[in-house]
Amino acid sequence: MSHTNIQAAWDYHRETKHSYHSVHASRHTLDWANMPIPFKIYTELEPIGLPRPWQESEMTALSAVSGMTVYTEGERIPSLKDIARLVYFSAGVTKRKLYPGGEILFRAASCTGALYQVELYLVCEDLPELPAGVYHFGPKDFALRRLRRGDYRAVLAHASNQEPSILQAPLIIVCTGIYWRNAWKYQARAYRHFGWDNGTILANLFAVCAALGLPGQLVLGFVDDDVNRLLDLNTQQEVALCMASIGRTQPHVSRSSPAVEPLRLKTAPYSNHEVDYPEMRAMHAATCLATVEEVGHWRGPAPCKELQASHGSLCKLHPDLSAEVSCDNVERVVMRRGSSRQFQRKPISLREFSNLLYCSAQGIAADFLQPPSALLNDWYLIVHAVEGLAPGVYVLRRETWELELLKGGNFRSEAGYLALEQKLAADASADVFFLADLQTILERYGNRGYRAVELEAGVLGGKLYLTAYAQKLGATGLTFYDDEVTEFFSPHARGKSAIFLVALGHGAKRKSLDVEL
């Protein structure tokens, strides 16, 4: 199927919407005896242990998340210790919690259901203490396993149609998604979660890049089959989602790679048996790019958004990123981060709220966002308890960093209902809903635009997580009743689609253990 036949994206989006009826009529139950393991295990490859401990970075987390980093000219080549920090603070195991049936290993970034369906692969030139090759990162034992020897970056350079950041990158991290690992709980809707969960990992990854002074860029334009083949993926189970270029070296446009032969490496099964949700594979296939010519046509300026005139009162944001506000670095914030499972009904300050929005909404370095400030998602908010800001419904005007009041009042009960009747959204200090003009995005990017808008929302949500925890606040990602969200924010949001939701506030500790989302 051509990625330009956008009816495929619309069909999937509509078929996986949540409504009051669909949720309450569902008979889906969790088969705990068949729950997939959250790790990809190569049974015949030797581990290459990664070093630790390491020296912490000096940059504050707020500065790192905001992306306000000036990179000096010249080469920026990551060391093995840098690589260890990058993968640990984006996808490593940071917490272990016991419960009556066993143990849950929580990761550095939030993931729906704590099911961790996103895997990381590294493709690199010869680096300090790490020979050129293709590697898989194993979070459980914090080790790499080499799949291929040699420099295969030319494969990715060709697949991306000579994307400049890929040509200059000494290290490229490829993110993949495993269908069954998330679909076990969320069924066909799990394809949306590929974007959300991949995005939170990338938010961490790029924040650590900033702290280390390493340029990083998200790359979504590539020939999918070429990347899947390089990683030796069984595409009925696992597929490449995106790439991240890390560092900078002299480009070698004409370099060639060794032949990409099938490996057929053995891996442990994820569970006793897998339940197939073909809608996910069909949706992913519809988003794939088949040729470098398609990649070249796909990449380009983001669609222009018409600036809507303001009709409600405006509140100027007052961010303060000084070290006095939060001196914690990214590493400390990631180690503290979790997903809040309960909020206290108490206000946050306008400064804290301003920092949350200002740091998280700066933009993303990505090949589908030109310029980087041209985000696909719009920010709609329900404010419950922010000092100096009247409770009500707002939209963020990023061009002036102002909040426009759409309607005033107390909407805690409405927020809780919209978030699949979860009390978290009602108890939070504020809820951020990401909505997007999906029709315009699909017309511009084809079905690949669906992958882009979900992934971008995940990155933005991940940045909200980090900014919240940097200020000793809490955050959690939530799902929602799709059409009811659009209706609630209309007429301003008429024609837009709900993409993601993050609740923010003062977290409260619970004695019982809940997994994320």
Q: At the third CATH level, what is the topology name of the largest domain?
A: NADH Oxidase
Helicity level, as a percent range? 25-40%
Tally the helices: what do you get? 18
In CATH, what is the class of the largest domain? Answer: Alpha Beta
Q: CATH-wise, what's the superfamily of the largest domain?
A: NADH Oxidase
CATH architecture of the largest domain: 3-Layer(aba) Sandwich
Brief synopsis:
With 517 residues, this protein is an alpha+beta fold.
Defining key terms:
seven-stranded antiparallel β-sheet; 32% helix; globular; 517 residues; disordered C terminus; NADH Oxidase; alpha+beta; 20% strand; 17 strands
Q: Would you mind describing this structure in some detail?
A:
By secondary structure, the protein is of the alpha+beta class. It has 2 domains: 46-259, 3-Layer(aba) Sandwich (NADH Oxidase), CATH 3.40.109.10; 314-507, NADH Oxidase. The protein has 18 helices and 17 strands. It has helices at 7-15, 20-25, 61-66, 80-91, 153-159, 164-167, 179-186, 190-212, 224-230, 278-287, 292-298, 330-336, 350-360, 412-418, 423-427, 438-445, 448-470, 482-489; strands spanning 48-49, 93-99, 102-107, 118-124, 133-138, 143-149, 171-178, 216-219, 238-246, 314-316, 343-344, 378-383, 392-397, 402-408, 430-436, 474-478, 497-507. The longest helix has 23 residues, at 190-212. It is globular and about 65 Å long. Mean pLDDT is 93; it is low at 511-517.
